[in-house]
Amino acid sequence: MKKQKRIITILVSLIVVCFGGAIGTHIYQRNIKANQPRVIVTTVALAEVFAKLKIPVVGVPTTNQKLPNVDQNLPRVGNHIAPNIERIVSLKPKTVFVDDALVGDYQGKLNEEHIDLKPVNFTKLANLQQAITQLGTMYHREKAAEKLNATLVLPAEKATRQIKVLVLMGMPGGSYMVGTNQSYIGDLVERAGGKVVGGNGNSPFVSPNMEMINQENPEMIIVLAHAMPQNVKKAMQAQLRKGTWKNIQAVKQQQIHYGELPTFAPTANLHAPAAFAQLHTWMGAASR
């Protein structure tokens, strides 16, 4: 009888320990979830960085691009073309992260709702790497940030001859801008051993100057899309058949390349090594 009582006591103790432990774990996990910062990211590039750093978010941009797996079932909050402020407000975020080139599309409306807006500079690869370091510090993910930045280190290139490259940013309406070496892709071109031509200055993109383009006569043209890539490609193909474009070496030699998302984007992202490798291949073909 005493032996049976002892066994029952041991079993009860085990049940209490296991059940109590399960309750404790559940409460702990619930508290972690409750204490996590409520963050919304508004571009695919930001979503990719936050996913790699394992920083949880509560809202992601509306996009046709593939989002990280952890974000697949999260609420969509629009994009810089059509931000869904109502949706953003309804998610009660503490902070909304926006590419600093797109702040104007969000600032006024979010200020009205007293939501903290954090601009992030992804203009060039170096800016992206700096932002990753800052986010790692902000959310105590320093080691993850260091590891992620290591994947973005590009090899140094020494070209025997610099290929002259024109970077164009096409708009859905048929207009376009010229990328300088201050743009993300322009910077990668020069890192890969090329020379960006057709535009200069401190801005990433400037208005086209056909006199300068004709004078510098680029050997290769890269076309990016600001939005609606298929429409942009069709419009730019028509544009490059007009006027003096037919006299440009890149057009005559059919060295026109249409960069596609996510590898080629207006601002820096985690696909920089793939974009760099592709640029190197294209420039190699143009130099033959």
From TrEMBL:
GO BP term (any one): cellular response to iron ion
A Pfam family the protein falls into: Peripla_BP_2
InterPro entries: ABC_Transporter_SBP (IPR050902), ABC_transptr_periplasmic_BD (IPR002491)
Domain Fe/B12 periplasmic-binding positions: 38-287
PANTHER family the UniProt entry points to: HIGH-AFFINITY HEME UPTAKE SYSTEM PROTEIN ISDE, VITAMIN B12-BINDING PROTEIN
Family: Belongs to the bacterial solute-binding protein 8 family.
Protein name, UniProt field: Iron ABC transporter substrate-binding protein
Organism encoding this protein: Periweissella cryptocerci
Higher taxonomy: Bacteria, Bacillati, Bacillota, Bacilli, Lactobacillales
